[in-house]
Design a protein that fits this description.
Helix content: over 70%
Strand content: under 5%
Number of domains: 1
Structural class: mainly alpha
Number of helices: 6
Radius of gyration: 31 Å
Distance between the termini: 71 Å
Oligomer: single chain
Largest sheet: none
Length: 166
């Protein structure tokens, strides 16, 4: 069969095959390099996620401890911890932590920061009275939740960012 193919065509065909093999080798090296870059990016992402997890875990631990010690008002602790628990839906959904979501729903509309400073003294006092009533109503359950969260966060020190809370 090769006898009927002229020499120049056979040579040209061989060159095409060699060129395709060279291109294939180049593509394989590009894929390998891309996998290495992707692994490096994933490694940095994992490290960043772990760092963020540890920061959130420590924040929850410290806010809970400050609340237990009386250094942080219940409403402020509730708002801060609610936002941190948004990163851990499984933990937030646990029955013992339901008090955080319930209390948050009642205090979420209160003015904070500059908006609170802009309130007239009577308006601010009215909000404070309402907040104190909410804190009184949820106080015991919220403090029990803070004690549980504090112990749990201490136990999770060094855990992976995707910890399973169940």
């Amino acid at each position: 069969m090769l006898d009927i193919i002229p020499g120049p065509l056979l040579f040209a065909g061989g060159l095409v095959i060699l060129a395709l093999l060279a291109y294939l080798a180049w593509l394989l090296t590009q894929i390998s390099a891309q996998r290495r870059r992707s692994a490096a990016v994933q490694s940095r992402l994992d490290a960043s996620n772990q760092e963020q997890h540890e920061h959130r875990r420590k924040s929850i631990e410290m806010i809970a401890l400050a609340t237990i010690d009386g250094d942080c008002e219940l409403a402020e602790a509730c708002i801060r911890i609610k936002h941190l628990l948004d990163y851990y839906p499984g933990l937030a959904a646990e029955p013992e932590n339901a008090v955080i979501g319930e209390m948050f729903e009642e205090i979420r509309g209160f003015a904070t920061h500059d908006a609170r400073n802009a309130l007239k003294p009577r308006e601010r006092a009215a909000e404070d009275r309402a907040r104190y009533q909410i804190e009184e109503r949820y106080g015991n359950a919220f403090m029990a939740c803070m004690q549980s969260l504090h112990a749990r966060m201490r136990a999770l020190e060094g855990s992976r960012f995707d910890f399973d809370t169940r």
